[in-house]
């Protein structure tokens, strides 16, 4: 294999490449990015890797979630707080159910670049470039909005920094104090049974903490500060490269745009540019996979991306769809076991379950999502492996983008509050319900 450099990916085939008409401005924007301070630090990145290695041993469980595609317009206080709250709520429920430490990783503070199945979109005879995320172009169907604009890379970096700054201040300021669930409870869970079950769990946790502190005779300060890590699809390689640095007192290169970048299902080809870039960075990384990957190819991918077989380094995020997982997953688990590789297995029950309604809305059904998760859990168990985490597209807001759940969202309801420009997300109630159902399952099996 050739020597790795932050730009050695340029020698490989780049899928999902963006053609910027203004090369000079692109160059200038990238130069600026290469001088700006990193968004995260290598200490945090290594801490997360250590936590993920605990998850490979079954001592922790990953909860990864957030928007399919973050929007610049949502870089505001309310949506960010709502996103933190829903992740915190879910993590409490999952802690209770799994009796394991929950690692919270947001799809936020940088999830601004999207892979698309087509380079262009045609409406009424007009063909324009597809929308590829707020960091690349804008969703409005005009030539101006759809032309990739390099300056949006800087706007994306800045919004990532603003989001992260707000999250860090909230967390450091005690917003996520476990003794004060009222700070981070979502007040608008109206569905009574859900609210009751959730409140019982959270009160139980708060009581246990009080009890523990009385026994210990001191305040447990760690409980005040629930950590969040950031992640996004590392799709836009020029952007990722500019924030990839060598840091003092450590060996290796760190991609400091986020803690946990992942390779998308469309860009994970072994001889492609994304795998080349990712193999050289020291971060913990994820790879999305589905039925199209051969078992031998998966084992090779693990060898290329994690040659030292370092626990916590590599996470496979499988996203088969409820109808395909039973057939697709077992041979992949076997391939990894036979090749003696340590990976973390995570289920993304969203991306294999996308359907389009008659009226043309992209949606996902709560039952299909839950069914894929249920099956993932059982299959790993039966194959002597274990499900180490879950990956959702969700929001803390009251949208109607996915069908079903306790409130029974129907196709007609999708018209009420469908906000996403890309994939449909679970809303706050559906997310909490999902967490409660997973927790029940984990509790039954471990309790
Ligand atoms: C995504 O996570 O939004 C995505 C595009 O997923 P995948 O790469 O699994 O299709
Ligand atoms: Co998506």
Outline of this structure?
With 447 residues, this protein is of the alpha/beta class.
Can you write the helix and strand succession as a string?
A: HHEHEEEHHHHEHEEEHEHEHEEEHEH
Radius of gyration: 21 Å
Principal-axes geometry comes out as: globular
- Classify the secondary structure makeup into a structural class: alpha/beta
Q: How many distinct folded domains? A: 1
> According to CATH, what is the class?
Alpha Beta
Task: Describe the model.
The protein is α/β, with parallel strands linked by helices and 447 residues long. It has one domain: Aldolase class I (TIM Barrel). Helix content is 40%, strand content 14%. An 8-stranded parallel β-barrel has the order 1-2-5-8-9-10-11-14, surrounded by 4 helices. Strands 3-4 form a two-stranded antiparallel sheet. Helix 10 crosses helix 11. The longest helix has 25 residues. The chain binds phosphoenolpyruvate and cobalt (II) ion. The site of cobalt (II) ion has 5 residues, from loops.
Topology:
Elements (H helix, E strand, L loop, with lengths): L22 H13 L6 H15 L3 E7 L10 H22 L2 E7 L12 E4 L2 E4 L13 H4 L4 H22 L8 H4 L7 H25 L12 E5 L3 H6 L1 E3 L6 E3 L4 E4 L9 H8 L4 E5 L5 H11 L8 E5 L6 H14 L5 E4 L6 E3 L5 E3 L1 H17 L4 E7 L34 H19 L1
Parallel strand pairs: 1-2, 1-14, 2-5, 5-8, 8-9, 9-10, 10-11, 11-14
Antiparallel strand pairs: 3-4, 6-7, 12-13
Bound molecules: phosphoenolpyruvate (PEP) and cobalt (II) ion.
Question: What descriptive keywords fit this protein?
Answer:
alpha/beta, TIM Barrel, eight-stranded parallel barrel, two-stranded antiparallel ribbon, 13 helices, globular, binds phosphoenolpyruvate, binds cobalt (II) ion
């Amino acid at each position: 294999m050739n020597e790795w450099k932050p730009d050695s990916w340029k020698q490989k085939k780049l899928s999902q490449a963006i053609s910027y008409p203004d090369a000079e401005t692109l160059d200038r924007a990238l130069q600026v990015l290469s001088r700006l301070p990193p968004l995260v630090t290598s200490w945090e990145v290594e801490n997360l890797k250590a936590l993920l290695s605990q998850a490979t041993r079954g001592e922790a469980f990953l909860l990864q979630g957030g928007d399919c595609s973050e929007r610049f317009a949502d870089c505001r206080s309310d949506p960010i707080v709502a996103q933190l709250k829903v992740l915190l709520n879910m993590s409490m429920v999952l802690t209770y159910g799994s009796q394991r430490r929950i690692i919270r990783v947001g799809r936020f503070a940088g999830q601004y670049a999207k892979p698309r199945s087509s380079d262009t979109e045609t409406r009424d005879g007009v063909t324009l470039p597809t929308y590829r995320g707020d960091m690349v172009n804008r969703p409005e169907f005009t030539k101006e909005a759809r032309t990739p604009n390099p300056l949006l890379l800087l706007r994306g970096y800045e919004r990532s920094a603003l989001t992260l700054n707000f999250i860090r201040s909230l967390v450091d300021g005690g917003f996520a104090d476990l003794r004060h669930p009222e700070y981070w409870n979502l007040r608008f869970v109206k569905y009574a049974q859900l609210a009751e079950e959730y409140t019982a769990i959270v009160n139980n946790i708060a009581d246990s903490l009080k009890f523990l502190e009385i026994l210990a005779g001191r305040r447990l300060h760690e409980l005040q500060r629930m950590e969040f890590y950031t992640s996004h699809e590392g799709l836009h390689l020029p952007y990722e490269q500019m924030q990839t640095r060598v840091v003092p007192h450590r060996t290796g290169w760190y991609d400091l745009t986020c803690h946990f970048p992942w390779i998308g299902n469309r860009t994970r080809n072994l001889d492609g540019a994304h795998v080349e870039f990712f193999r050289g960075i020291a971060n913990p990384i994820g790879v999305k996979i589905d039925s199209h990957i051969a078992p031998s190819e998966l084992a090779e991918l693990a060898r290329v991306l994690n040659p030292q077989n370092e626990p916590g380094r590599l996470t496979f995020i499988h996203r088969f769809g409820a109808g395909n997982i039973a057939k697709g997953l077992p041979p992949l688990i076997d391939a990894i076991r036979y090749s003696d590789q340590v990976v973390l297995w995570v289920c993304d029950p969203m991306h294999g379950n996308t359907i389009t309604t008659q009226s043309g809305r992209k949606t996902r059904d709560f039952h299909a999502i839950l069914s894929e998760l249920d099956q993932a859990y059982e299959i790993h168990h039966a194959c002597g492996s274990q499900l180490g985490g879950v990956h959702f597209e969700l929001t803390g807001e009251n949208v109607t983008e996915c069908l079903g759940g306790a409130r029974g969202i129907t196709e007609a309801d999708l018209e009420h509050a469908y906000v996403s420009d890309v994939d449909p997300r679970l809303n706050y109630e559906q997310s909490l319900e999902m967490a409660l159902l997973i927790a029940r399952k984990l509790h039954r099996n471990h309790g």
